Amino acid sequence: MTLDENWFSETDQDMAFSLRIRGKLHEEQTPFQKIEVYDTVSFGKLMVIDGCVMLTDRDNFIYHEMMAHPVLFAHPNPKKVLIIGGGDCGTLREVLKHDCVQRAIQVDIDERVTRVSEQFFPQLCEANDDPRADLRFDDGIAYVKNAEPGSIDVIVIDSTDPVGPAEGLFSTPFYKDCLRALGRDGLLVQQSESPLLHTDSIIRPMHDSLRAAGFLDMLTLHFPQASYPSGWWTATIAAKDATVCFHREEAAEELGFHTDYYNAAIQRAAAATPEFFRRKLFA
Questions:
Q1: Residue pair 37/25 in contact by the 8 Å Cβ criterion
Q2: Cα–Cα distances in Å, from 18 out to 7, 161, 241?
Q3: Verdict on whether the full-model pTM lies above 0.70
Q4: CA end-to-end span of the chain, whole Å?
Q5: Cα separation of 54 and 60, whole Å?
Q6: Beta carbons of 209 and 223 less than 8 angstroms apart
Q7: Which residues are the active-site residues?
Q8: DSSP secondary-structure letter at 164?
Q9: 138-173 pLDDT, tens per residue?
Q10: Which of 14, 44, 157, 204 could form a disulfide with 190 if both were Cys (CB 3.0 to 4.6 A apart)?
Q11: Cα separation, 277 vs 24, whole angstroms
């Protein structure tokens, strides 16, 4: 079947994800990338960057909650959080649901992503005015390189695919800078693509690079994401000087804030490793 102009389609490795659209709400070319926003029939508003789905109204909560809550509950006392990327501000909103977080710095190279999100996805930007939030529009790689050693508890790398501006966020030199910036018990989490499509090309090389940078332990969490290639996504947590564990499990069991996907049982289940993935990752 050939789709007409009433559909948006993203293709990946001989696959396609398509949504019927009512129309295009916004389009601009920034110095870094092309941003588009569509009004879809069944997934609400859709943000696209360089032709790739970034988020939809309908399912973004899964990604944002899984990027924030598992790693924060895996740290014994996360006070200072650094978010690299995340310009739509959904992950920032979730991070700041944790009362223990005293400061959350978000560094995204493209300010226009945040401004477009404020216009079309205001619910994701509800925490932007939180006094603990510090929004910076700069090069995240340079920011980490210049960060004071041991000054950060958790680094969240909420990036686009490892091409273009995000390519350097998947490299051993960058991970070494992250390791240096993290304090004792420090944790890093990064979106790590689809295990069905990207285990060999992205996830295993990521584990290798994190290990080469000096991280002691890694754990890849699995969760559904309907609007991303294959519908199955991951986030990889890396620990500076300990094993990755569910450190504040009791606090997660008694959540003091609202979520739509995350709970303690989800965190435990997301850590289960499918057999094909285990063989590829640890062979």
A1: yes
A2: 6, 19, 43
A3: yes
A4: 40
A5: 9
A6: no
A7: 158
A8: G
A9: 999 999 999 999 999 999 999 866 656 666 778 999
A10: 157
A11: 38
